[in-house]
Design brief:
By secondary structure, the chain is α/β, with parallel strands linked by helices. It has one domain: Metallo-beta-lactamase, Chain A, CATH 3.60.15. The chain has 9 helices and 14 strands. The protein has helices at residues 35-45, 59-62, 65-72, 148-159, 174-182, 189-203, 213-219, 221-224, 228-239; strands spanning 3-10, 14-21, 26-30, 51-53, 75-79, 91-93, 98-101, 104-110, 119-123, 128-132, 135-136, 139-140, 166-169, 211-212. A 6-stranded mixed sheet has the order 1-2-3-4-5-6, covered by helices on one side. Strands 7-8-9-10-13-14 form a 6-stranded mixed sheet. A two-stranded antiparallel ribbon has the order 11-12. The protein binds fe (ii) ion (FE2). The site of fe (ii) ion has 4 residues, from loops.
Length: 241
Amino acid sequence: MSLKIDIVRCLSDNYAYIIYDTYSKNVGVVDPSEFDKINTFLEKKYNKLDFIINTHHHADHIGGNSELKKKFNSKIVAYSGDTYRINDVDIKVNNNEIFHFGKTKFKVLKIPGHTSGHISFYSSEEKVIFTGDTLFSFGCGRIFEGSYLEMFNSLKKIKSLPKDTKIYFGHEYTVNNINFCLSFDQKNIFLNKKLEEIKSNLKNNIFSTPSILEDELKGNLFLKANNPAEFKKYRELKDSF
Ligand SMILES: [Fe+2]
Protein backbone atom coordinates (compact mmCIF):
# COMPACT_ATOMS: atom_id res chain seq x y z
CA MET A 1 0.00 0.00 0.00
CA SER A 2 1.58 3.27 -1.07
CA LEU A 3 -1.33 5.70 -1.21
CA LYS A 4 -2.40 8.17 1.46
CA ILE A 5 -5.58 10.21 1.05
CA ASP A 6 -6.65 13.40 2.83
CA ILE A 7 -10.10 14.89 2.48
CA VAL A 8 -10.56 18.63 2.00
CA ARG A 9 -14.06 20.01 2.23
CA CYS A 10 -14.56 22.81 -0.32
CA LEU A 11 -17.27 25.33 -1.27
CA SER A 12 -20.56 24.39 0.41
CA ASP A 13 -20.60 20.60 0.10
CA ASN A 14 -17.77 19.51 -2.24
CA TYR A 15 -14.98 17.10 -1.42
CA ALA A 16 -11.52 17.38 -2.92
CA TYR A 17 -8.94 14.71 -2.19
CA ILE A 18 -5.24 15.18 -1.64
CA ILE A 19 -3.41 12.00 -2.60
CA TYR A 20 0.17 11.09 -1.78
CA ASP A 21 2.22 8.20 -3.08
CA THR A 22 4.64 7.24 -0.31
CA TYR A 23 7.01 5.51 -2.74
CA SER A 24 7.51 8.33 -5.27
CA LYS A 25 6.41 11.16 -2.93
CA ASN A 26 4.11 12.39 -5.67
CA VAL A 27 1.30 14.67 -4.50
CA GLY A 28 -1.99 15.02 -6.35
CA VAL A 29 -5.40 16.54 -5.89
CA VAL A 30 -8.59 15.04 -7.21
CA ASP A 31 -11.19 17.65 -8.21
CA PRO A 32 -9.92 20.88 -6.65
CA SER A 33 -13.10 22.93 -6.35
CA GLU A 34 -11.25 26.04 -5.27
CA PHE A 35 -7.69 27.31 -4.85
CA ASP A 36 -7.64 28.63 -1.27
CA LYS A 37 -8.65 25.53 0.68
CA ILE A 38 -6.34 23.25 -1.30
CA ASN A 39 -3.47 25.71 -1.17
CA THR A 40 -3.78 26.15 2.61
CA PHE A 41 -3.74 22.38 3.07
CA LEU A 42 -0.78 21.86 0.74
CA GLU A 43 1.28 24.65 2.29
CA LYS A 44 0.94 22.99 5.69
CA LYS A 45 1.58 19.42 4.60
CA TYR A 46 3.50 18.86 1.35
CA ASN A 47 4.32 22.24 -0.15
CA LYS A 48 4.11 20.80 -3.64
CA LEU A 49 1.52 19.51 -6.08
CA ASP A 50 2.57 17.29 -8.98
CA PHE A 51 -0.82 16.38 -10.45
CA ILE A 52 -4.28 17.90 -10.66
CA ILE A 53 -6.72 15.13 -11.50
CA ASN A 54 -10.24 15.89 -12.76
CA THR A 55 -13.21 13.51 -12.93
CA HIS A 56 -15.31 15.91 -15.04
CA HIS A 57 -15.49 19.47 -16.30
CA HIS A 58 -17.97 21.06 -13.87
CA ALA A 59 -16.74 24.29 -12.27
CA ASP A 60 -17.03 22.94 -8.73
CA HIS A 61 -14.51 20.21 -9.64
CA ILE A 62 -11.98 22.19 -11.67
CA GLY A 63 -12.32 25.65 -10.08
CA GLY A 64 -8.86 25.51 -8.50
CA ASN A 65 -7.05 24.08 -11.53
CA SER A 66 -5.43 27.11 -13.09
CA GLU A 67 -4.28 28.88 -9.91
CA LEU A 68 -2.89 25.64 -8.46
CA LYS A 69 -1.13 24.80 -11.71
CA LYS A 70 0.37 28.26 -11.84
CA LYS A 71 1.62 28.16 -8.27
CA PHE A 72 2.91 24.58 -8.13
CA ASN A 73 3.65 23.94 -11.81
CA SER A 74 1.40 20.85 -11.65
CA LYS A 75 0.27 18.68 -14.52
CA ILE A 76 -3.46 18.49 -15.21
CA VAL A 77 -4.87 15.01 -15.87
CA ALA A 78 -8.28 14.80 -17.54
CA TYR A 79 -10.35 12.93 -20.10
CA SER A 80 -9.01 13.38 -23.64
CA GLY A 81 -12.47 14.22 -24.97
CA ASP A 82 -12.98 17.11 -22.55
CA THR A 83 -9.95 19.23 -23.37
CA TYR A 84 -12.24 21.75 -25.07
CA ARG A 85 -13.80 22.54 -21.72
CA ILE A 86 -10.99 21.79 -19.26
CA ASN A 87 -8.09 24.19 -19.92
CA ASP A 88 -4.39 23.34 -20.10
CA VAL A 89 -4.66 19.56 -19.81
CA ASP A 90 -1.17 18.01 -19.82
CA ILE A 91 -2.03 14.33 -19.55
CA LYS A 92 -5.02 13.26 -21.62
CA VAL A 93 -6.46 9.94 -20.51
CA ASN A 94 -8.94 7.52 -22.03
CA ASN A 95 -11.16 4.67 -20.89
CA ASN A 96 -9.24 1.68 -19.47
CA GLU A 97 -5.87 3.45 -19.62
CA ILE A 98 -3.54 3.34 -16.64
CA PHE A 99 -2.49 6.63 -15.07
CA HIS A 100 0.73 6.04 -13.14
CA PHE A 101 0.75 8.10 -9.96
CA GLY A 102 4.15 7.04 -8.70
CA LYS A 103 3.80 3.45 -7.63
CA THR A 104 0.01 3.72 -7.52
CA LYS A 105 -1.66 2.60 -10.72
CA PHE A 106 -5.02 4.20 -11.43
CA LYS A 107 -7.19 2.62 -14.06
CA VAL A 108 -9.33 5.21 -15.83
CA LEU A 109 -12.93 4.05 -16.08
CA LYS A 110 -15.20 6.13 -18.26
CA ILE A 111 -18.57 6.51 -16.57
CA PRO A 112 -20.75 8.87 -18.63
CA GLY A 113 -24.22 10.03 -17.60
CA HIS A 114 -23.73 13.01 -15.26
CA THR A 115 -21.56 14.44 -18.03
CA SER A 116 -20.62 12.84 -21.33
CA GLY A 117 -16.91 12.81 -20.49
CA HIS A 118 -17.06 11.77 -16.84
CA ILE A 119 -14.24 9.45 -15.73
CA SER A 120 -13.27 7.76 -12.49
CA PHE A 121 -9.87 6.67 -11.17
CA TYR A 122 -9.66 3.18 -9.74
CA SER A 123 -6.77 1.44 -8.00
CA SER A 124 -7.30 -2.27 -7.47
CA GLU A 125 -4.22 -2.58 -5.24
CA GLU A 126 -5.30 0.27 -3.00
CA LYS A 127 -8.99 -0.69 -3.29
CA VAL A 128 -10.12 2.87 -3.91
CA ILE A 129 -12.11 4.65 -6.59
CA PHE A 130 -12.73 8.37 -7.08
CA THR A 131 -16.23 8.57 -8.51
CA GLY A 132 -16.74 12.35 -8.83
CA ASP A 133 -20.43 13.08 -9.33
CA THR A 134 -21.42 9.66 -10.67
CA LEU A 135 -21.77 7.56 -7.55
CA PHE A 136 -22.46 9.26 -4.21
CA SER A 137 -22.99 7.55 -0.91
CA PHE A 138 -26.54 6.13 -1.17
CA GLY A 139 -27.18 8.26 -4.24
CA CYS A 140 -25.94 9.10 -7.70
CA GLY A 141 -25.38 12.21 -9.78
CA ARG A 142 -28.02 13.97 -11.81
CA ILE A 143 -28.10 13.15 -15.48
CA PHE A 144 -27.08 16.32 -17.30
CA GLU A 145 -25.51 15.17 -20.54
CA GLY A 146 -26.04 11.45 -20.88
CA SER A 147 -28.99 9.09 -21.01
CA TYR A 148 -30.47 7.08 -18.17
CA LEU A 149 -29.15 3.95 -19.85
CA GLU A 150 -25.60 5.36 -19.92
CA MET A 151 -25.76 6.25 -16.24
CA PHE A 152 -27.23 2.84 -15.40
CA ASN A 153 -24.35 1.16 -17.25
CA SER A 154 -21.77 3.42 -15.61
CA LEU A 155 -23.06 2.44 -12.18
CA LYS A 156 -23.03 -1.19 -13.28
CA LYS A 157 -19.30 -0.87 -13.98
CA ILE A 158 -18.70 0.39 -10.44
CA LYS A 159 -20.98 -2.32 -9.02
CA SER A 160 -18.73 -5.00 -10.49
CA LEU A 161 -15.67 -3.87 -8.48
CA PRO A 162 -14.65 -5.77 -5.33
CA LYS A 163 -17.04 -5.15 -2.45
CA ASP A 164 -14.34 -3.78 -0.18
CA THR A 165 -13.53 -0.92 -2.60
CA LYS A 166 -13.62 2.47 -0.90
CA ILE A 167 -15.73 5.04 -2.74
CA TYR A 168 -14.41 8.61 -2.64
CA PHE A 169 -17.23 10.76 -3.99
CA GLY A 170 -17.71 14.43 -4.89
CA HIS A 171 -20.42 15.82 -2.60
CA GLU A 172 -21.72 15.51 0.94
CA TYR A 173 -25.32 14.62 0.09
CA THR A 174 -25.43 11.46 2.16
CA VAL A 175 -28.15 12.33 4.70
CA ASN A 176 -30.57 13.47 1.99
CA ASN A 177 -29.68 10.42 -0.10
CA ILE A 178 -30.40 8.00 2.75
CA ASN A 179 -33.69 9.76 3.47
CA PHE A 180 -34.65 9.24 -0.17
CA CYS A 181 -33.77 5.52 -0.01
CA LEU A 182 -35.68 5.23 3.27
CA SER A 183 -38.80 6.75 1.70
CA PHE A 184 -39.20 3.45 -0.18
CA ASP A 185 -38.34 1.25 2.79
CA GLN A 186 -38.92 3.16 6.03
CA LYS A 187 -38.18 0.29 8.37
CA ASN A 188 -34.90 -0.72 6.75
CA ILE A 189 -32.69 -1.38 9.79
CA PHE A 190 -29.40 -1.00 7.95
CA LEU A 191 -30.34 2.39 6.45
CA ASN A 192 -31.80 3.74 9.69
CA LYS A 193 -28.64 2.79 11.54
CA LYS A 194 -26.48 4.38 8.83
CA LEU A 195 -28.52 7.57 8.96
CA GLU A 196 -28.01 7.97 12.71
CA GLU A 197 -24.33 7.11 12.46
CA ILE A 198 -23.67 9.59 9.65
CA LYS A 199 -25.70 12.39 11.26
CA SER A 200 -23.74 12.06 14.47
CA ASN A 201 -20.42 11.83 12.61
CA LEU A 202 -21.17 14.97 10.61
CA LYS A 203 -21.95 16.83 13.83
CA ASN A 204 -18.44 15.91 14.96
CA ASN A 205 -16.93 16.92 11.61
CA ILE A 206 -16.36 13.33 10.54
CA PHE A 207 -17.20 13.13 6.84
CA SER A 208 -19.32 10.40 5.25
CA THR A 209 -16.70 9.89 2.55
CA PRO A 210 -15.29 7.40 1.79
CA SER A 211 -18.08 4.86 1.65
CA ILE A 212 -17.59 1.13 1.09
CA LEU A 213 -19.06 -0.51 -2.00
CA GLU A 214 -20.53 -3.29 0.12
CA ASP A 215 -22.70 -0.77 1.99
CA GLU A 216 -23.73 0.91 -1.25
CA LEU A 217 -24.81 -2.42 -2.72
CA LYS A 218 -26.87 -3.03 0.42
CA GLY A 219 -28.64 0.31 0.59
CA ASN A 220 -28.17 2.51 -2.50
CA LEU A 221 -31.43 2.37 -4.48
CA PHE A 222 -29.67 3.43 -7.66
CA LEU A 223 -27.34 0.46 -7.46
CA LYS A 224 -30.19 -1.84 -6.47
CA ALA A 225 -32.27 -0.89 -9.53
CA ASN A 226 -32.53 -4.04 -11.63
CA ASN A 227 -33.00 -2.40 -15.01
CA PRO A 228 -32.72 0.98 -16.74
CA ALA A 229 -36.47 1.67 -16.44
CA GLU A 230 -36.43 1.17 -12.67
CA PHE A 231 -33.29 3.30 -12.44
CA LYS A 232 -34.95 6.08 -14.46
CA LYS A 233 -37.97 6.04 -12.13
CA TYR A 234 -35.79 6.49 -9.03
CA ARG A 235 -33.62 9.15 -10.66
CA GLU A 236 -36.63 11.20 -11.75
CA LEU A 237 -38.20 11.00 -8.30
CA LYS A 238 -34.92 11.99 -6.68
CA ASP A 239 -34.63 15.07 -8.93
CA SER A 240 -37.58 16.59 -7.07
CA PHE A 241 -37.03 15.00 -3.63
FE1 LIG B 1 -20.77 17.66 -11.48
